[in-house]
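hey can u check if this looks right to u? its 718 residues, i copy pasted from the old doc so theres a chance i mangled smth
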Amino acid sequence: MTALNPSGRAAHALQAGSRPLLTALAECEARQRALFSNATVGIALADVQGRLLEVNEAYARMLGYTAQELQGMSIAELTHPEDEPLETDYLAAIARGERDSYQIEKRYLHRSGREVWGELAVSGQRDERGRLVQLIGVVTDITGRKQEQAHLRLMGEVFRQVGEAILVSDQDNRIVMVNQAFTALTGYRPEEVMGRNPSLLSAGQTPREVYQKMWAALRERGHWQGEIWDRRKDGAVYPKLLSIALLKDDRGRLTHHIACFTDITEHKEAENRIRYLALHDTLTGLPNRLCLQERLGQALLAAHRRQEMLGVILIDLDRFKLINDSLGHHVGDALLVQTGARLQAAVRNDDVVARLGGDEFVVVVTGAATMEVVLSVAGKLLETLRQPYQIEGQVLHATPSMGISFYPEDGKDADTLMRNADAAMYHAKSQGRNGLQRFDPALNAAATERFILESNLPRALAQGEFVLHYQAQIDGQSGCLMGVEALVRWLDPERGLVPPDRFIPVAEETGLIVPLGAWVLEEACRQRQAWHRQGLPAFRVAVNLSVLQLRQADFPGQVARLLERHGLTAADLELEITESAAMGNPLETIEMLNKIKAMGISMAIDDFGTGYSSLAYLKLLPIDSLKLDRSFVKDIETSQDDAVICSATIALAHALGLSVVAEGVETAAQEHYLLRQGCDYLQGYLFSKPLTATELERLLGSLDARLCLRSAADRRQH
């Protein structure tokens, strides 16, 4: 073995001694590499230009790249554009030696484009000469924290800015927090309520039971919502909608109460307004049918409990439909308003006044010890409604028809009492109107009859159950037929022939008179043309009109088209309108009749003497004749007054250039008296009852060529 020289031995000894150091260095480097690779925070090495040299997995994962993809990318590429200038300034300061490190919170751009918040610490590494050789950055992902902070800021801002008042109290119900809306609503500043019980807001008007239910619900369900009354700092009381929820910790222990509330004054006012509108008539302000049912039910319970009487009075205004149709709905509305005011002024404080609709009103007389008390109130109502109405400078008369029923004699429930009062009211109408009738059980039959008529009329019109009868009109001088009046009859398949005085008023009230009147005109014209084709001599057909037909703007056009369709001339038709209808709105009637008269059609006033004609208007009506009502004709043999009225009417008509038709002539004495007074035409059973078209044809076929129908007594005298 060769011995080593001294220098060789030293080198060998140095090599042998450095092995542990190298091993230690390698182990240290391995540990650092492991720490670098496995660190939960992002670590990046960059050159002095800011290009990434190496990054760990946490850094790459935070930004959505692989470590290899990030190598060579610049820090600026990965930084949000808004944060890049600040970091550039810091990096420049390190490069200039002005600082060794910096710490900032910045936004990175994830590979997907979303923002990632990081808390970054950067330091520079320098060589022995102080030159910057690389940058080391350590970054922690704080995106979740930032989102939580943003959420908390948002919640805080919502708490401050929300329009609903919020109050937070602790487990002992002491106020710990309020928002701005609380102060705006209550008037209390936060420092004035902190540590106090929310009961300081109470107005003392909420029932105790509400609070008891509130606390019970909070204990059972952890939340409650309801309406209570509170008082503002200035003393103003207001209703509020309150919601309370309990806040508990993770062990289920109560920590806070959270109350949200808002002023619902406007809501309550709107709710009350809606309820008022639902229960009151919008025109008169009186209780409506729904409200009446409620109040009548309450009144009946009180009457039963106190052993008192109660009266239900149903009121219908006579001639209201005529006024409404003739003078306009605004006049009708004003009349209804005045009627409601009169009724309220005439009853006692505890009585109920309601409007059912149209021109029907109801008064419930309560707390009556005797029937006379109710009748006294009814008499007062009757008298006050009989007084004339002043509307738009006009004096109007709309007398009442009233029916009354009594509790308990006439019924023990609201429906029965109302039904019986209604039957009594219609009985008052049938007795001549302008009066009061008490319910009688026999009236139920009449009410049932009216209901049947009203229900069956539309069916009768649709199925063609109406027929026309014709009554002859005789020339007073020659005794010859000069015309016939078309009279409508209802041939009911179950009840036989229904007279017009039973169904015409119902048709007028329901509005069915318009289509019924149109059918009558159509059928009369069709029949007149049929008689033409049979070769019967010319005579005109008179047809009655309803005021509702005259209110149709195109009525003259309808008549013109009707004549053209059936090949008739104006001389074949005469139209009749009642005196009361003509006088309802005389100016409007005159205008419409002038249009009809311009077509060459004859016009007559029917039932003359039964209405309230104004001679000033009568002379302006474009009419050709007056029809003297049968009520004056029937007693001219025995009543001097009726005889005078007949002669005066004939003289008046002739003075105005009008002819006169006397209706209801049944005796030769009546005929002779009327002819002596100069009556132009006669109509009645003395000559012919109303006949079907076929019966009239047979009658005319049995006469001579002049179609003379002069009475047998008169023919004997001649």
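Residues 1-6, 711-718 have pLDDT under 50 and may be disordered.
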